[in-house]
Amino acid sequence: MSAAPARHPRPIAPTPGPRPAVRPQRSGQPQRRAPQGAPGRRDHLRAVAAPEQARSLVPFAWTCALIIIGALTAVLFINTSMARGAYERRDLKIEIAALHEQKATLVTKLEQKSSPDELGADARGLGMLPADRFGFISLADTLVIESGSK
Question: Model-level pTM?
Answer without folding.
Answer: 0.42
